[in-house]
């Protein structure tokens, strides 16, 4: 059985102007916050792993703690550029890092493992990108055009109907890319 691993970014809990800036379909800040919590918990179980790639909340620390206490899962935070409050409730996260590299066991991947790079910002190249490593990012709220030749995607909520996305969903998106290994033998 595959691990229940999810990726997401850019919730901006408590940030009323994000509704306008990102053209989110919410009538109010309260509606946005509640819908984001609902969609998170529809997907994420209490023991699932969630990698949040930054910009969790722009609300005050107490507000942010209250939101985090309502979210399912074991949350690992990659710092974004709006983490003032999240850093003040750091004990709610399994860890907080600027950047993270790891591998997921996957029999379909080369050598049975899929390497993944997590960073708040999109990169044009990254460690082992020429070997099929994925790069997941947030920050841009769907405003960057997808590069079908690169194994990178925006996992932010604005790109995925305001839901976190699973490892399997990321894998399906990566399979649609036209990326080829640059050092593969040419036929």
TrEMBL record:
Sequence ranges assigned to domain Calcineurin-like phosphoesterase in this UniProt record: 4-122
One Pfam family recorded for the sequence: Metallophos
Gene3D superfamilies listed in its UniProt record: 3.60.21.10
InterPro entries: Calcineurin-like_PHP, Metallo-depent_PP-like
Protein name: Calcineurin-like phosphoesterase superfamily protein
Organism listed in the record: Chryseobacterium polytrichastri
Record lineage: Bacteria, Pseudomonadati, Bacteroidota, Flavobacteriia, Flavobacteriales
